[in-house]
Specification:
Elements (H helix, E strand, L loop, with lengths): L5 H16 L26 H5 L15 H4 L4 H14 L8 H4 L2 H16 L10 H16 L26 H9 L6 H19 L6 E2 L7 H11 L5 E6 L9 H9 L5 H12 L7 H9 L21 H7 L4 H4 L10 H24 L20 E3 L8 E7 L2 E7 L2 H18 L11 E3 L4 E3 L2 E8 L2 E5 L5 E5 L2 E8 L1 H10 L3 E2 L5 E2 L10 H18 L6 H23 L5 H8 L15 H9 L31 H12 L2 H14 L4 H18 L5 H17 L3 H11 L4
Parallel strand pairs: 1-4
Antiparallel strand pairs: 2-5, 2-6, 3-11, 4-5, 7-8, 8-11, 9-10, 12-13
Helix pairs in contact: 4-6, 4-9, 4-23, 6-7, 6-9, 11-12, 11-16, 14-19, 19-20, 20-21, 26-27
Organism: Rhynchospora tenuis
Pfam families: Intron_maturas2
Protein name: Domain X domain-containing protein
Length: 726
């Protein structure tokens, strides 16, 4: 049993007094010296027979609020699932969140997530020590009592498993540096972030618009591109805007007002308000200038990472992060909000999404001569649009990825200009954000619209349309229409490669050697670049020119590695590298003076052919673009499962199903099984058991009926079954 310090005993003293005051006192002893049992009306609490039968005793013990074992009653995953279900069942009503904030199960789950993010390894619940659970309980009580402070490094309730530093053991100089130097947020702040995210995300995900993507579960850049391919085929004018400046210095009142519209819980609102208002520790520019002036040492010993310390990102992942599109390059980080910042940004911009949905409904004006209709479009080829007359359907659509939005307008340019004016006024009124015509340009589809590193353009096609006439005859006609093309931007790809120093030049890109991999082996270098190429092929999965752009990336990487190997093994030119290592650089390279140590080791171990060659060295190796039809009204898998579960558990849905089955004259499988069981039970008592004479009579009747109809084969089968032979 862990020892309790005096402060813990004083805090638990009222609880123990209540427990002992509820104990019944034994009856006073008799005057005689002989021992006598207490009276039956007041049982003895120290009698073993009484304690073994709780029904005979009047002892009533309540759960200790300071004991974590009594507070961990439910599974945290099922607790989160119940919150998701209740939020999606009634999106308009917010459940009470204070009860979830006090659940220790959620705090334990948040600790596991923060631990995995901090150390890079998952910690099972059974491996969490008791001291950590007590620290989590203290942190929870501090949050509920209002004693928690963001950014507290001096006296934290719980420390990171990778940070054994105890501030009480530091000197004054080190303590000053520890408290004033900028650094990552304290570990206990990350736990509170995770708890708030577990509570707030289900509530707002059920209310967010389906037009918004980014920083939401299941709604990635790929789903945004597929939505554009399906829904933006017929639009001529496009409006593009960037609201990132709104969140560079967020207005606290704006964020809190958007939060208070849906959340009325004072504790949660006060926590987020304190996270926004608490100042951050920033670096002094003078100190940074002094550090730059200091000369670096000639030799710095490499530090060996500990087993529980997270490893840095591999080179291929760092390279791929350099290709992040402009819309996803900037992540929100406000004050001490941490991972809550993207959620709070979506809460603020959700008002813009709802306003645009109203404009879409008001703008819609169908035309009888325009055959384009999104709901009746060809599902297998949604990006194709047949030609129509001059009178077109006035339609509009909208999509938002983070702080960037894209609006498509089908109609005259004047309608797009009116919408832009309304949008600028709305942002000025609601967000206090000053926009102008240059920040929200109007562009025609023929010029190409850049969004998420993909270019939206239109080209005229002449497909052969085949359809079945009324008489069943298949008719083929030559059609004409426009096709929405979603292609990867090769210009943007070259720009990113130049930024990463993989090539130089604009018109004729020339690969440059990748000297960061100079000290790595050939097998490791090829493996890193193959992972990068596979990731690039997946990123451009839905682009029409996927084969071209991925093959170009492979050409740049292959040329860069060939120059690197030529410098490393002193082979002078790329041609000599390709001659020795083949086109995909899969063969081990040799130096001038015999075999390289790497090749010698591989040869000794019998692993000469273990070096993987580069992928996609030929365009035929690159996979085809993915044109899988994107369904209308798409929802992520977790939302679809939630909606189906809520629908199946609704009593009205079951009644509707029963009514439909009854009207159609069908029966359910349960009713069918019940009828079979009931008929079996009923017939078992009505019909007597068959005897041997009855069986012989039945066989004779079958044989006579078979001979009458000429069924000799059937007669032989019956005779063989009765044991008489054929």
């Amino acid at each position: 049993m862990p020892r309790l310090n005096p402060s813990t005993l004083l805090r638990r003293l009222p609880f123990y007094l209540r427990q002992f005051s509820s104990l019944p006192l034994p009856s006073p002893p008799l005057r005689s010296h002989s021992y006598s049992h207490p009276s039956p009306s007041r049982p003895d609490p120290f009698d073993p027979s009484t304690r073994s039968h709780p029904s005979r005793s009047t002892l009533t013990f309540t759960s200790d609020p300071f004991d974590p074992s009594t507070l961990l009653k439910e599974d945290p995953i099922s607790l989160c699932a119940s919150l998701w279900v209740s939020s999606f069942r009634e999106p308009s009503s917010t459940p009470p969140l204070s009860s979830y904030l006090s659940r220790l199960e959620l705090w334990l789950l948040a600790y596991q997530k923060a631990y995995a993010d901090d150390t890079g390894s998952y910690l099972p619940r059974s491996n969490i020590p008791a001291s950590t659970i007590h620290s989590l309980l203290s942190l929870r009580n501090a949050v509920l009592d209002g004693r928690f402070k963001w950014g507290n490094r001096l006296t934290p309730f719980i420390r990171s498993p990778r940070d054994p530093t105890d501030p009480t053991t530091l000197s004054k100089r080190k303590l000053k540096v520890f408290l004033t130097a900028p650094g990552p947020p304290p570990f206990q702040d990350k736990i509170v972030h995770e708890v708030l995210l577990l509570i707030l995300e289900p509530v707002f995900e059920s209310q967010f618009s389906s037009k918004s993507f980014a920083f939401r579960p299941g709604r990635t850049a790929h789903t945004a591109i597929r939505t554009i391919r399906r829904s933006f085929a017929g639009y001529l004018w496009y409006l593009k805007g960037d609201l990132s400046t709104l969140f560079d210095c967020p207005k606290i009142n704006l964020v809190l007002n958007a939060l208070i519209r849906e959340i009325r819980d004072k504790k949660i609102v006060d926590l987020i308000r304190a996270a926004l208002l608490t100042p951050l520790i920033t670096a002094n520019p003078m100190d940074e200038a002094l550090k730059k002036k200091k000369k670096s040492r000639k030799y710095q010993k490499k530090r060996v990472l500990a087993d529980d310390e997270p490893k840095p990102d591999p080179y291929w992942l760092q390279t791929f992060f350099g290709f992040a599109p402009e819309e996803a390059r900037k992540q929100f980080d406000w004050g001490h909000c941490g991972v809550l910042s993207p959620l709070l940004a979506n809460i603020c911009l959700d008002e813009l999404d709802k306003w645009m949905e109203e404009r879409i409904t008001e703008f819609y004006k169908p035309s009888n001569t325009d055959t384009w209709d999104r709901e009746q479009a060809n599902i297998s080829w949604p990006e194709f649009l047949p030609t129509t007359g001059p009178d077109k359907t006035r339609k509009m659509d909208y999509i938002r990825f983070g702080a960037h939005f894209l609006i498509g307008v089908r109609g005259p340019r004047a309608d797009a200009a009116v919408l832009r004016k309304q949008l600028i006024e709305f942002c000025d009124t609601r967000f206090q954000l000053k926009l102008d015509n240059e920040s929200v340009p109007i562009e025609h589809i023929t010029k190409g619209i850049m969004f998420l590193d993909h270019v939206l353009c239109r080209r005229v096609v002449y497909p052969t349309l085949r359809y079945t006439a009324s008489g069943g005859k298949i008719i083929s006609e030559k059609g004409v229409g426009t096709l929405l093309s979603v292609t990867a931007s090769l210009k943007q790809c070259i720009k990113q490669f130049r930024k990463l120093e993989f090539l130089k030049g604009d018109r004729e890109p020339d690969p440059q050697p990748c000297f960061r991999m100079f000290h790595a082996t050939q097998a490791h270098t090829n493996l890193q670049m193959n992972k990068f190429l596979l990731t690039m092929a997946e990123w451009y999965r839905y682009a029409d020119n996927r084969k071209k752009v991925v093959n170009f990336c492979s050409y740049i990487i292959r040329g860069s590695l060939a120059k690197l190997y030529a410098a490393k093994y002193k082979l002078r030119s790329r041609a000599k590298v390709y001659k020795i290592a083949s086109r995909n650089l899969s063969r081990p390279l040799k130096e001038k003076k015999g075999q390289s140590p790497e090749y010698h080791n591989l040869l000794r171990m019998g692993l000469v052919d273990s070096i993987d060659g580069l992928h996609y060295t030929r365009m035929s190796m690159v996979p085809e673009p993915d044109y899988t039809p994107f369904p209308g009204g798409w929802r992520p898998d977790h939302e679809r499962v939630l909606v189906e579960y809520i629908k199946l558990t609704d009593t009205n849905t079951l009644e509707e199903l029963r009514c439909v089955i009854k009207d159609e004259g069908l029966i359910t499988p349960q009713d069918s099984v019940s009828m079979l069981v009931w008929s079996y039970k009923k017939n078992a008592y009505l019909f007597p058991t068959l005897e041997e004479t009855d069986v012989d009579n039945e066989e004779d009747n079958l044989v006579s009926s078979a001979e009458k109809h000429g069924g000799f084969a059937f007669v032989g089968a019956i005779s063989q079954r009765s044991g008489e032979g054929p």
